[in-house]
Design goal:
This protein is an all-alpha fold and 145 residues long. It has two domains: 64 residues; 80 residues, no CATH class. The protein is built from five helices and no strands. α1 packs antiparallel against α2, α3 runs antiparallel to α4 and α4 runs antiparallel to α5. The protein is globular and about 50 Å long. It starts with a helix and ends in an 11-residue tail after the last helix.
Amino acid sequence: MNAQLCTGIMLLTVGLVLGWQVFRIHIRDSRIFPSIAVGIMVLSGIGVIIQGARGKSVLPLSSLALHKKELLLFGILVCTSPLYAVLGFYTTMLLMLLGVTSVVEYPLNKGKIRFVITYSILVDLFCYLCFSVFLGLATPSGVLI
């Protein structure tokens, strides 16, 4: 087994799990964008699996070792899903963006902290404008917010 085959299997598995979650959304119009993203992920996974099965991989399986930074990013993403039910979509997304951008930009100084906060707020605002204002889609609302 090579790195591409293993990565393709993981990508396909995550895509199928996300697809199952997307089709559990009760409001049909809210499924459009996530369905497209899941479709791209599943097709990409299949493509990577085909390349890996043909032996066109340039990386050995040992190159898939995860480092602390990658595990921290994975942990942030895993914590994001249960927070939707408590905090709602936009608050959870803002916290996720702050966490992910902080990890990517680490080590932080005063200028980077300002960038992380500004970037996270602007992306969250952009998502609000796209989903709620322009498309009129209902996003998950939480218990607290």
